[in-house]
Amino acid sequence: MEKRAGRMEWLDAAKGIGIVLVVIGHAWKSVAVRDPIYAFHMPLFFIAAGYVAKPAPVREFAVKQWRALGLPYIAFLVCLMAADPLIEGARGFRPMFRDWGSAVQAGLMGGTSLHGPLTVFWFVPCLMIARLAQVAIYKLWPDARDWRWALSMAVVLALGVWWGRASNFSPLGIIAAPVALVYLWLGALWRTWGQDRWLLLACAVASVTALLIYGPLAPLNMKYGDYGPRPYVTLPLAFILSLGLGWLMRLIPWRPFVALGRMSLVIMFLHVPVIHYLRPYFDVWGLSALALILPVAAYYLLARFKMGRRLFLGAA
Questions:
Q1: Cα–Cα distance between 279 and 156 in angstroms, integer?
Q2: Cα–Cα distance between 114 and 47 in angstroms, integer?
Q3: Which of the chain's ends, N or C, has fewer CB atoms near its CB within 10 Å?
Q4: Rounded CA separation 198/219 (Å)
Q5: Cα 268 to the chain's mean position, in Å?
Q6: Which residues have CB under 8 Å from 9's CB, separation 6+?
Q7: For the purposes of burial, counting CB atoms within 10 Å of the CB of 247, is it exposed (0-12), middle (13-18) or buried (19 or more)?
């Protein structure tokens, strides 16, 4: 299961199981369930994006990013912000924002200004910022194996960890952009390694060793720049766990996860609203199922219409 229609199916499958874990991590409140998932679930998506990254003209890439990610981000954000007062009014709850002025301000700020059903909306602008930075650096050093990449990413990682400790204010998810850029680079570096089984075995040994030394997996909250008490252990471990998941998806051709991976952007935007609004009425099993089923249904509905594909799915 390598490629079909120009796509790497194993990578889609990894994103598919990743988005399932994201849903479970948000639906379940149990620390025993959430913490292992939060140890690597968001880094996985940055690493996957980095795996397919390649040098490109910055302006051309920015336009493509706007169409593929920017338009869906705005379309889903506006629709959900408009729907929230109606849904909460019907449930007898207070809406997310007290008035339209505060809603517009939060929408423009994004990142940590968005909460409740919009809590994951930090991810897309952060990804866009980090990917633009990666493409800009590619103009200097087109090969991710260049030692200057490694040196600059070490500095960027230190900056990201310091910034996360110094502040938790993050308009458009920018506080996570330095660490996201490092993961994008690691994803690009991973592609140059190919399918080195000895490397993957070494990663598995390193994962087990880290778990034995440091105990339970520390959760990461990239939205707020929280990388745990030992960031220089937890951040590399997230990369290693992502490598392991990618290796597993190479071995096991789970077609349902391939499909979910291709819908992951829509599921990312919609699963939290489903969980937020339906939590009082379903247990965690039903909530987890609905948080996957309803966004998938929305994806297929939007895919039927040209405007839906353009605005919400990022398709040309």
A1: 39
A2: 24
A3: C
A4: 28
A5: 8
A6: 1, 2, 3, 253, 258
A7: buried
The H or E element that residue 142 is part of is: none
Contact 292, 260 (CB under 8 A): yes
Half-sphere exposure in the Cβ direction for 191 (13 Å, CA): 18
Q: Are 138 and 188 in contact (CB under 8 A)?
A: no
SS3 144: coil
pLDDT in tens, 154-208: 999 999 999 999 998 899 999 999 999 999 999 999 888 765 556 666 666 666 6
For residue range 257-287, list pLDDT tens digits in order: 999 999 999 999 999 999 999 999 999 999 9
Q: Which amino acid is at 28?
A: W
